[in-house]
Amino acid sequence: MVRALALNCTLKPAPAPSSTQKLLSEVLAALGDAGVETDLVRVVDYDVRPGVEKDMGEGDQWPMLREKVLAADILVLGTPTWMGHHSSIAARVLERLDAELSETDEAGRPILFGKVAVVAVVGNEDGAHKITADLFQALNDVGYTIPAQGVTYWNGEAMGSTDYRELDATPESTAGTTATVAANAAHLATLLAGANYPA
């Protein structure tokens, strides 16, 4: 069974409404339709300490999230857009994933080789393409494989006040892209599970 973990990098603690949560839920629903087991975590609800180690000491809750990350075949990283950039929570996740650069599996491969990452971005301002480029580069650096068309996003009207979660219906273009992201991620994760990169 292929497993996916979505990390919601909203700045809003639960149970506050979150547009990022809505889009991630749609991605996970599409992955579920593809036979993938899914889980969703709102990172801001945990005490994830700054740093680039697997465990930053007493009180750091990243180690429990790291277990989920390592157990997942697919990582879905979701972020809102703030001032044209990904959230500080998303930056924190990338910083903590940096520790995996020095971790290897039993065959000597980087520990995140053979795993897939996709991205979801929401915001009522421009920035989705830049955010995607930044996240893809970082995720690929630590070992994740990015599938074809591995991002779904929604941008509202520039300088507008409507959030994605407030829409009456999911826009057709976003829904179609989300379905493609899920299908391609599930396909690639299944292939890599059966034939990982060479040691």
Any key phrases for this structure?
alpha/beta, Rossmann fold, 5 helices
What does this structure look like?
The protein has helices spanning 19-33, 62-71, 88-97, 128-141, 172-194; strands at 3-8, 37-42, 74-82, 85-86, 116-123, 151-155. α4 links the parallel β5 (116-123) and β6 (151-155). It starts with a strand and ends in a 5-residue tail after the last helix. The longest helix is centred in the C-terminal third of the chain and has 23 residues, at 172-194. The chain has 199 residues and is an alpha/beta fold. It has a single domain, classed as Flavodoxin domain (Rossmann fold), CATH 3.40.50.360. It has 5 helices and 6 strands. Strands 1, 2, 3, 4, 5 and 6 form a 6-stranded mixed sheet that branches. The mean pLDDT is 96. GO terms for molecular function: oxidoreductase activity. InterPro entries: Flavoprotein-like_sf, FMN_Rdtase-like_dom. Residues 3-148 form the NADPH-dependent FMN reductase-like domain. This is Flavodoxin family protein.
